[in-house]
Here is the input.
Amino acid sequence: MFTNRKTSFVMSSPYLAWALIFIIVPIGMVFYYGLTDTTGAFTFENIASIAQPEHSKALWLAIELALISTLICFLLAYPLALILARNKMSSDGILTTLIILPMWMNFLLRTLSWVTLLENRGVLNSILGALHLPQLYIINTPAAIVVGMVYDFLPFMILPLYNSLAKIDDAVINAAQDLGANKLQTLWHVILPLSLPGILSGVTMVFIPSLTTFAISTMMGGSKILLIGNVIEQEFTLTYNWHLGSGLSLVLMVFIVINMVVSMISDQGED
Amino acid sequence: MKKELIQLQHISKSFDGNMVLDDLNLTIHENSFVTLLGPSGCGKTTTLRIIGGFERPDEGKVIFDGQDITSLAPNKRQLNTVFQKYALFTHMDVAENIAFGLKIKNKPSNYIKDKIKYALKLVNLEGFEHRMPDSLSGGQQQRVAIARAIVNEPKVLLLDEPLGALDLKLRQDMQYELIRLKNELGITFIYVTHDQEEALTMSDHIVVMNQGYIQQEGSPEQIYNEPENAFVADFIGDSNILHATMVRDELVNILGTDFVCVDKGFGENNPVDVVIRPEDIELVPRGKGTLPGVVTNVIFKGVHYEMDVEAGGYEWLVHSTRLNEVGSEIDISVDPFNIQVMNKPESEDEKALSVEDA
Here is the structure.
């Protein structure tokens, strides 16, 4: 139907225009601001400022917390996705809906409710106190930020894992058992490698927002713990230094690109 | 008689209240090629999966080499399966696929190497070690699946419609390959198919199933020449199945005309079913045969002509190498040996299995 080049260009032009205005131009602007100073002259100083101790510390902490929350998300999501996919429970859709349900609420609201739960005089500690158990002083620590990240981004890990696991034919798993593999060997040698594409997209979809977040760290960290996302946000909203903010964004982009390239290479290695 | 290797005793299985197998009893002998044959939903695949350990029967026992293996996990059974859609591991190359079972069993790498070579030679895929399954044709993938199963030296190879996805020519070639493999390996093959020609070509022993019951067991010749009921007659090849009356021993009345036959012991004036294969009907000049008829349709099939003959109020299917033009007025003649008389179904249960309901 749309084999004609001209027709296909006309049909796709709204999307091309959208991509140009809302994706290409903003990225171009980030590059422009990041590579210039206030006078408009070309400079690498904004990017080099990542070497400043407070910036590099924020970057490494962000990477560390993003890695930890990605790992926790994976460890929580994989067994759940496996159970959902292999038992074909999703056919009734209830469990899938339950997983997606939290996403219907604004994520700031969800994070805020965790603050209420974890506060030093919050819901969790009231319950622990009533049970005469030791109190948990976790709010405003990196651990609280990880809790927020895991809670907010867990569905993004479950869904791609579920999709790739559901695609594995029962006969392939039967074949592994038939050839003598026990459940653990089947998981390790067959199910895990066959679900690699899902693992890679799940990791990407959790790692990148965790790495760049500033809202979760602001709320759960009580503005005391700065991640690279918070530093960039402050450059734009507090000190109005768009050049420095853009420069640091470019550095962050490098890490995102590395993550995606690694995913793509691993994915192609499968073919 | 060969040694009994597998016994299914009083096996019943239902899925969601649907009875798939009902009190099934089956004995499989060592070193035989047994085919479970039947239409889809007859329970043949479920039977195979129970033998393989992928389904557990609701009732009954599976005896393997004298031992009860009913609740033994598939990975502990001395048999291997070739699955319908090959079920190769797409993330491994051909050699890794074949080595899978041996690596799980921690066999030495030299042994594994030799086995891969041997298996690939056996299935005519030498030099394919490092190809990925996705780059192979359906027939090649099927051969890899067979190689992957046989390197484990199973006592029994289970094959679940393994040729179903292949085209006709390849399917016929693979039939001969499977017979050759079975003879070279000297192990038992249990083969599931709905294709009666496949079953007749390859098997030593055919088990015809329908609606969870075994309809008839026997050699391909027995199944084809002496079907025990209308279902088997209809399912195995083309046939004319007629309501008839047994006048007395060796005489049956079909459509109001008496035919001489060789069957005895059906009583006198008893209703029976009669099956006559289309190639067993001779069309002879008017007055020379038993039942007068008219040719109403002719199709050339290559090896023979397929003719419809209207005679005695029934449309007979006739296969012959000699052409009788449409409109020819001829007589039908059947050799007494080629009239197969069968009991009518008696109970309601049996009736449910008759050809009308199938």
About this structure: The CA atoms of residues 61 and 227 of chain A lie 6 Å apart. The two ends of chain A are 31 Å apart (CA to CA). Chain A is about 75% helix and 0% strand.
